[in-house]
């Protein structure tokens, strides 16, 4: 059994040094609590990374600011699976893929939960094509290469929430998606990482996306075309997945670009990604770069 059930990375009110720890209130949605400026008491761990958490120190701190569970220096290249929910494939009128589609985001795309904003780059504001994609992100816990589906979960540390922010006009101008999804801060994750040992049945994990108070995406992972073990195994063939590797597992039906009428993200909008089993709600406000 793991040394933790869920962890957050944060700046405490008492200092400017990032810490990791476990929220004292096991039922608290730390994303919403942070957004509402409610106190979040945390049992501090001895480690400085969720990849090597250490043990509880007996010390408690109050969150000053939530950070992404992993830092940019820890994640390497962020791997993303496209078109990986059955109902999303149907809504965009695409055939069900037989092989996972991979695209990449650089570590500089990693973003924090609220109060960190999601920024639409100045060069693409006029396109009016910014879109949301609520996703479950998985974190690799130990070096993985050429692993089978049966052993894939041995390499999984846990899950968190992500928003795969996309600039659709830029995306469809080229055959490769990475550029349009790689802008600074275009991959906020958090607020908490939940250890795999505390999730009974990954297929039952729920994910929901909410735009300005309206639920626009809602699914369980049982709608995935390629399961989490399949994704880990596939990506590890011939390629070493280092500890800290983040993999975005795809977005369910309900994206704005294919909605009728079309919905795009604009300055002042707010997008929330909820993931069950203790991950909580990732919240970001949208800002247009001036």
From TrEMBL:
It holds the Pfam family FAA_hydrolase. GO terms for molecular function: acetylpyruvate hydrolase activity; metal ion binding; oxaloacetate tautomerase activity. Keywords: Metal-binding. The keyword Metal-binding applies. One of its GO terms (biological process) is oxaloacetate metabolic process. InterPro entries: Fumarylacetoacetase-like_C, Fumarylacetoacetase_C_sf. Residues 77-286 form the Fumarylacetoacetase-like C-terminal domain. The keyword Transmembrane helix does not apply. SUPFAM superfamilies: FAH. Belongs to the FAH family. This is Mitochondrial protein.
């Amino acid at each position: 059994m793991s040394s933790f059930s869920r962890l957050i990375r944060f700046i405490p009110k008492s200092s400017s040094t990032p810490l990791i720890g476990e929220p004292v209130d096991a039922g608290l949605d730390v994303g919403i609590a942070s957004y509402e400026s409610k106190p979040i008491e945390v049992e501090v761990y001895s480690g400085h990374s969720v990849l090597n958490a250490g043990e509880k120190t007996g010390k408690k701190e109050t969150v000053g600011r939530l950070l992404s569970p992993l830092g940019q220096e820890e994640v390497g290249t962020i791997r993303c699976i496209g078109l990986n929910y059955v109902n999303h494939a149907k809504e965009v009128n695409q055939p069900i893929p037989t092989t996972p589609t991979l695209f990449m985001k650089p570590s500089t795309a990693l973003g924090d939960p609220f109060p960190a904003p999601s920024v639409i780059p100045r060069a693409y504001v006029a396109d009016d094509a910014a879109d949301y994609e609520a996703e479950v992100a998985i974190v690799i816990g130990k070096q993985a290469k050429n692993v089978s589906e049966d052993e894939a979960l041995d390499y999984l540390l846990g899950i968190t929430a992500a928003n795969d922010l996309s600039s659709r006009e830029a995306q469809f101008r080229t055959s490769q998606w990475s550029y349009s999804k790689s802008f600074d801060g275009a991959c906020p994750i958090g607020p908490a990482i939940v250890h795999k040992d505390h999730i009974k049945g990954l297929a039952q994990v729920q994910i929901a996306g909410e735009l300005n108070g309206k639920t626009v995406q809602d699914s369980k992972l049982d709608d995935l075309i390629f399961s989490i073990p399949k994704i880990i195994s596939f990506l590890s063939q011939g390629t070493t997945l280092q500890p800290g590797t983040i993999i975005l597992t795809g977005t369910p039906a309900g994206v704005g670009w294919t909605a009728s009428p079309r919905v795009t993200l604009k300055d002042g909008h707010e997008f929330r990604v909820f993931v069950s089993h203790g991950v909580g709600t990732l919240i970001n406000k949208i800002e247009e770069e001036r």
